[in-house]
Amino acid sequence: MQRVFALAGLLGLCGALAAPAVAADLRSALSAAEVRDPTLAAARANRDAAAEYVPLARSRLLPQVSLQASAQRLHQTTTEETLLGERETKFVGPSGSAQLALRQGLYRPRDRVGLEVGELQAEVGTYQLASASSELWRRASTAWLDVLLAESQHEAMGEAMAAAERTQAQARRRLSDGDGTRDAVAEAEAQFAAARARVNEAALLRDARQRQFASLTGLAGVALDSWRLPQQLPAPLARSEGEFIELLLARNTELRAATATFAVSEKRLAQARADHLPSLDLVASASRSQNDTAANVGSSYRYQQIGVQFALPLFTGGGLSAAERQAAAFSMAAASDRDAFAQTLRLRASELWASEQGLRERIGGAAGLVEAAREQLYAAEQGLRHGVRSIGDVSAAATLLANRRRDHAELRYTLLSTQAQLLAGLPTDDPAWAGWIGGLESVARLR
Asked: Cα separation of 169 and 164, whole Å?
């Protein structure tokens, strides 16, 4: 068993020595994640595709010019009944035509509304990209904090192992001095082996978190060993819950996308109503044709036309009315979706805000428990030195301190990740993001 623990410790040491020493700040992690994240790349491509709705809709209002041409070869056989009998005549000749046509919409209410629809759809694509960027920043920030938490947990377990090692050494000295027992040494060795196993487990978790961070950001050659979860609590994101929710409702990109989607549905309804209106186009064409036959060889024709074309739908089998009713129903659904999302956003933000405030209180209590556990460990070590405490008491105190430190780190991590979830509702260019990142980096770097 001791060989197994020794091998695990050696592997952990090799992993630590092989870990890169270059440190990455949070801003670098966010920038790297933006370059390689496929979700953000898809949102960017969808934004670019949505932007093309504008020139597509505008093209329907611009002149439409077309050219049609055909070239054929006529093989004609003519049969004629005469007094002398049936006479057959064959003719082979060219046949072709070319036409240049121009159509310019003068009054097209549907297409004019369509241009407004295209502009709104492009706006929706922009908001969706901003939302994907905010969500990516949340994921990258959480991955960065995951590594810092794992490092803090590894340190806490390492201190517990150091205390267990001191206890083991002291038990062996007592045995050699004739003041101890073999069972006390065996217990100390078992406690040290258990503490070393917890350290190795924490090291494996830290390495896994670093691999996850590297997978998200592409920073495979970067370590975060010069960063720690800050002991100092971060500042609140706003002065009050109401102020933050007001900011969130004003700037949340998903809500703005839902609002723009509702505006699109309103314009679609206007388009459906415009289908009942007349349209007026300017049309002009120039054509030339040559159709030789046996009776007409070498003749060509030229035509030039210009005028207006008026169209008014009179009866379409009820299709236009059904399209209008359908557009009205879609508009009502989009309005309800927007209102439902706003309500969910408000409730979610309120829940996270309350959780953050509660975590602040719990972190303060956890810090006090850490100090109390540290005093207990000191008292147990002193008691063991004077013969009034046992080795088990020291080991239990060291394990308690490690657990209290781990709990304290997890609470600080949860507070920071909760703030990242709140910030994910804001665009990345919002000052709240910059303030949070700057404040976090200033207290997370090891001095």
From this structure: 9
pLDDT of 78 over the 90 cut: no
**Contact assessment for residue 263 and residue 279, using Cβ atoms and an 8 Å cutoff:** no
**Separation CA 378–CA 393 (nearest Å):** 11
Q: Which residue has the higher pLDDT, 358 or 91?
A: 358
Tell me the residue range of the domain where 294 lies: 63-107+277-312
* 198 and 308, same domain (yes or no): no
pLDDT in tens, 57-72: 999 999 999 999 988 7
The percentage of the chain sitting over the pLDDT mark of 90, rounded to a whole number, equals: 58
Residue 337: band (very low, low, confident or very high) from pLDDT cuts 50, 70, 90 = very high
**DSSP-derived 3-state class of residue 314:** coil
The residue among 103, 107, 73, 77 whose CA lies nearest residue 90 is: 77
Question: Are 86 and 169 contained in the same domain?
Answer: no
The β-bridge partners of 100 are 67, 286
CATH no. for residue 69? 2.20.200
Distance CA 252, CA 427 (A): 7
pLDDT, tens digit (0-9, with 9 covering 90-100), for 363-379 = 999 999 999 999 998 89
CATH for 396: 1.20.1600.10
CA distance 286 to 384: 109
When divided into structural domains, the chain yields a total of: 2
Q: How far apart are the first and last CA of the chain?
A: 40
CA distance 243 to 256: 18
Q: Give the count of beta carbons closer than 10 Å to the beta carbon of residue 130.
A: 22
Amino acid letter, residue 254:
E
| Cα dist from 381 to 169, 179, 269, 377, whole Å | 12, 17, 79, 6
Report how far residue 409's alpha carbon sits from residue 205's, in angstroms, rounded to the nearest whole number. Answer: 15
- Residue 59 neighbours by CB under 8 Å, 6+ apart: none
As a three-state string, the secondary structure of 366-387 is HHHHHHHHHHHHHHHHHHHHCC
Q: Where are the alpha helices (DSSP H) in 102-181?
A: 109-176
Show which of 312, 334, 369 is a domain's final residue. 312
Q: What is the pLDDT of residues 86-122, one digit of tens each?
A: 877 777 777 788 999 999 999 999 999 999 999 999 9
Query: What is the CA angle 187-191-196, rounded to 5?
Result: 145
Written as six digits, the tokens of 209 are 């978190």
Q: Quickly list H helices, 252-389.
A: 253-274, 319-385
